[in-house]
Amino acid sequence: MATLRLTSKSLIQPVKVAIADQRSLHIWDTELSGFGCYISPKGKISWLVQRWTGGRESGKATRQVIGKGDLIDLQEARKIARRVLLDIDSGIDVIERKREARKPKVQQATIIVSEAIEKFSDLSAPWNSGRTETYLLERQRRLSVGLAEHLSVPLSGIQKANIRVALDKKETQSTRQALYAALSPFLSWCLENDLIETNPLASISAVPPVASRERVLTKPEIKALWSASYRMPDRWGSFYRLLLLTVQRREEVSGMHSSEIDFDKVEWTIPKERTKNGKAHIVHLSSMVSAELAQAQGYIFPASKVRLRGEKTEAHISGYSKMKSKLDGYMKAELAKDGHEFKPWRVHDLRRTAASGLAEMGVLPEVIERILNHTSGAAGGLKAVYQRYEYMKERKEALEAWGGCVAELVGAKMKAVAQAS
């Protein structure tokens, strides 16, 4: 373990090293024995004390975090450390003292996991200010699915081992990373509100984000997808076709409602509560899309049966994984007919495929960005003026052209499927 006379200046380099190497560091003070700090891979500092009782060979180490670097400065941390070390030397069990101090608060909060998740996900809560409803619902879903085996048990009973198992059950890095990203703020909130004594995620290394994907479906794959979609249940086949044609996100398309569609203007307005960036988004409905929608009422892709407290209620489709597997099977068969091999793909790849197709057609990057409802970080000047322009006419023309491009590509397949059915 590294030793150093801890000063604000001397800690600059270790923080840089921790961030650059993406590893945690423990630095011990040469001025006050037993006082040190923990530096996380993100460069966050926590002050701590450690004292051995009974010697290093057969004794016991008492280690305690006494504060975070962004809340307590070094000078104050050293003062607190002296007091805590003095208590340890006097025979006081400071760990048990801290545990007992917290226990009354925790015992009062007898809450099960599902209740904690629901409270944490409350759209009107101050800690969720600025979050969109779509984001909160997706985070709540990830928590509920990830902790499915523990929803009815007391929150205080969740241990590090339970969290590790939940993460390990995720088959891909992206799903593990998504669950970790949902658990981190949730468990921090639970700790801050005295619902748990310790954060079981604190000593589990963060799951690194997945590298950006570049998967774009080939023309044979698009044709196979289109043919396969007609073998799916009606609403699911149309759902996959609209994902490709509208270039919007999975949750935005699956939650499409007739109240969001202006059939006269041939426009679909996704409300800000359902978009990723929290801004309402207008999508032109090309001729191909309009043919799919007709004059639908309610959810465009309704769930088969949804009951809440015994009463039937309106909801849109879910269970994406099961249907995606079925679609993959049909696609594999279609590709094999033409001697092509099936390669795994994700639903979000359809969005990238469409964006790539628009670019190939010569559509300006700014127009594609608007179609995708991406938010730019540019500040001001002439560029900001252009960014305020919504390119509505250009977006309409681009989506209409994209629909025509898809129609031309899959036309023969569409006729073949229609004749077969």
TrEMBL record:
Keywords of the record: DNA integration, DNA recombination
Coiled-coil region list: none
GO MF term list: DNA binding
GO BP term (any one): DNA integration
rRNA processing found in the keyword field: no
UniProt KW Zinc keyword: no
Xref: CDD domains: INT_P4_C
Entry similarity comment: Belongs to the 'phage' integrase family.
Stated name of the protein: Site-specific integrase
Species per Swiss-Prot/TrEMBL record: Rhizobium sp. ZPR3
Lineage of source species: Bacteria, Pseudomonadati, Pseudomonadota, Alphaproteobacteria, Hyphomicrobiales
